[in-house]
């Protein structure tokens, strides 16, 4: 079974190439918006979108005291009310410097991130305080009402010379898919259009009848399909951010995994009759919305909110037809909402109600993602301790599921036993630097800690506290695997730490 | 000695049986040593080698025809294959060769130098853990006047040896010459899990040399058995040295091979001064700590994790795990290596800051076999409603290309986390033979079976019995490890499907529980 993730459903495979370079097909649509003569100017590509230049720097998970080389990306953001600019979160991840640039004059200003949701892949930017004049006179975009399949949408771009390029296409499909983090599923649109990227832009606004309908995430030149963050998701994000951006609750999740009930034998066994739909619940995450509602493994979920669930796990959406049930929870429902469910349990239909909540990334035993902060670590005389996170495993590259240390991959995939031990995080010895303190331990790596100086280690904070209490001047460090226990001289380790700092390891711990 | 932790084989050694044209995939990968390796350069100080015609006539070409089981279709007899290697007469009508030369054998023939006739042989004893086998001829008339080769001893470093055999499948005998480069513990790649004493030589040893003698002063100092395919080393060949050969020959004297025995512990060096201080040990570079202990091995109940091993049979154990035997520094396990099942070994321990003497009786430790390559075994399986169940071992994992994390976990940690206590055998649903009854069940492939019809599964036999217990039920329910969704099979439909599936897929029997 897949790892618990911040999404309520099974993972879907991530869609093909993102932001492919387009073949040289120069199909021009010289149909620029014509400004009406009235006093209030209508939104237009020239007046309602802005270049966003972002420099970002990833943290290095193997050498957690340092960052990798910085890299820059460009995008086009949608200007919204209150001098705010909407872009994808992926663009703003690990940003060290963000600037807004007017496409016509080239005027620039420094910007900050007001709110970000990496799961929904949305970020709201604004000029730094006192520098908002750059957006004066611009025409903010409103949010479109939900477009329907068959509607014509426009992708707005700005050419290098500052003029607009607009590509029209047909909205051909809406489906639930992952945006950026493979573990999070959201409604996404598919637009059929022959698109040519301008200026290597990373994110593009998508417009319906002069209002913002989505952000373009990727384009597959082979089938000319673009993938787009859907309108209800943008509306949901903005509504919550504008309520209180400091208490942004995110998108709720149910915390379940399920299986389809297409097999007659399974249907017979669970007591489903011929006409009933429903999906078989295979997993309920501890303390999730579904868990607190009393949902159990083996229940068949027949109805969620107002919608009957079919044996595949879809419902009939009034706008978009068959959609995965996760959109019932994420489309129009908010954290704190109560959502009724009908389930089949031991042959009886039972009504239960879930209060929707969201489990944040850092609340998981193994963080599914980590941006804008460095991995926590402690160095003890050359022993490097970290908390297990999915980004740590992903640092092994695309094939991390087979290349990363097996015990850690297994722990990430099967977290329950560790949670039952009362761990908040899995702390492990990631590697050993060769120092006088670590003599004999040089070849140890990727060992999960159980106790240090007799105290259980359920987080790096626990480890930090335990390391203040060596026993007779010696740290006793215990692992779940061979060699089970090692000993380190406490005083010598401190001296070594000081030397490591002199040798260029800028810091010997990060706990924030 | 067995590899008790996931000590991966850092040195990719390759077996050296040359293969006939019928050779298949399984053995072809052992052929990584390039066949066109140039001959060793002549050594300027060549002494005349005491090899004469009579010694050549004791060296035979071994031709093996085998049936290699296919773990994807375990009900089939297997794929015919074959290969050639070398063997030599060590006693009247007793020929020594490598186990890997005659594995999975159906027919073995020996060929004598200058004699076109193949002589039919049979395997008397085969030891997959040290890659040795003894063959005998049905009729040894042709060899009655041939003098067997004598065993020598461990040759000194930097002395000359010759390897004699039939490399690269050739019909004529080949002699290559080199020196003894290193004497060390090395993995024996045939079983994938065993480490024994090995001698490295720089004589050209190529596929087909396998099982052939390496000679010095006319005496056998080793059996050529594997090369090195790492791509970084050159002129590296390995031979099985005399102590390992003698141990095998002694073991089979009672008519059966009883395998190697082990302490069944994992030991860790005590080099760090803080570690020594915490354990209360003097700073004298003596002792290794017991860091892993197998609960059914020789040491179970007598040793504890955290014990420090100070001496083995009176030999002080250095803090890097070495002992000094007859002036040679060797791994402490070498003391156990030379012993047999039922033999005793004396250990001096440091426990709770006091010395303790224990004596333990050595025995074989079986659970490690899950990680060993299987030979001369009929694959076991159960087919039920098109679902194929098989017990987990290395051959199974490789044949099915299983990457499932739970299966890999049970494979990797079966021994080190003592998982065999709860589940002596891990049963995997390896494949599904498609039929209307199981068309929705393909997603359960490569899962571990945890429970069948309410019965916890500890062996393949449990699966068979739970599915065929004769009780009346509407549905068979199979639970897989970590899966919330059970496999549900309509019992009435199974009855009608079972015969149809076996016939359709040409499966002669719905189960084989004996290997």
Give an overview of the whole structure.
The complex is a heterodimer of chains A (512) and B (515). Chain A has three domains: 1-6 and 43-249, Thrombin, subunit H, CATH 2.40.10.120; 256-355, Roll (Pdz3 Domain), CATH 2.30.42.10; 362-510, N-terminal domain of MutM-like DNA repair proteins, CATH 3.20.190.20. Helix content of chain A is 16%, strand content 34%. Chain A has helices at 45-48, 89-92, 231-243, 264-270, 289-293, 326-330, 390-394, 400-403, 406-413, 416-420, 460-466, 490-502; strands at 49-56, 71-80, 84-87, 95-101, 108-117, 122-127, 152-158, 164-178, 185-192, 204-208, 211-220, 225-229, 256-259, 279-284, 300-304, 307-308, 314-317, 321-324, 338-345, 348-355, 377-380, 383-387, 427-432, 447-452, 455-456, 474-479, 485-489, 509-510. In chain A, strands 21, 22, 23, 24, 25, 26, 27 and 28 form an eight-stranded antiparallel beta sheet that branches. In chain A, strands 1-2-3-6-5-4 form a six-stranded antiparallel beta barrel. The longest helix of chain A is centred in the middle third of the chain and has 13 residues, at 231-243. The radius of gyration of chain A is 26 Å and the shape is flat. The two termini of chain A are 32 Å apart. Chain B has three domains: 9-254, Thrombin, subunit H, CATH 2.40.10; 265-361, PDZ domain (Pdz3 Domain), CATH 2.30.42; 380-512, N-terminal domain of MutM-like DNA repair proteins (Alpha-Beta Barrel), CATH 3.20.190. Chain B has helices at residues 25-28, 53-57, 242-251, 273-279, 333-337, 394-400, 405-413, 460-467, 491-504; strands at 13-15, 18-19, 59-68, 79-91, 94-97, 105-111, 118-127, 132-137, 160-165, 174-188, 194-201, 213-216, 219-228, 237-241, 265-269, 288-293, 308-312, 315-316, 322-325, 328-331, 344-351, 354-361, 381-384, 387-391, 427-432, 447-452, 455-456, 475-480, 487-490, 511-512. In chain B, the strands form five sheets. In chain B, strands 23, 24, 25, 26, 27, 28, 29 and 30 form an eight-stranded antiparallel beta sheet that branches. Residues 3-15 and 17-52 of chain B have low confidence and may be disordered. Chains A and B meet through helix 4, strand 14, helix 9, strand 26 and strand 27 of A and strand 15, helix 4, strand 16, helix 7 and strand 29 of B.
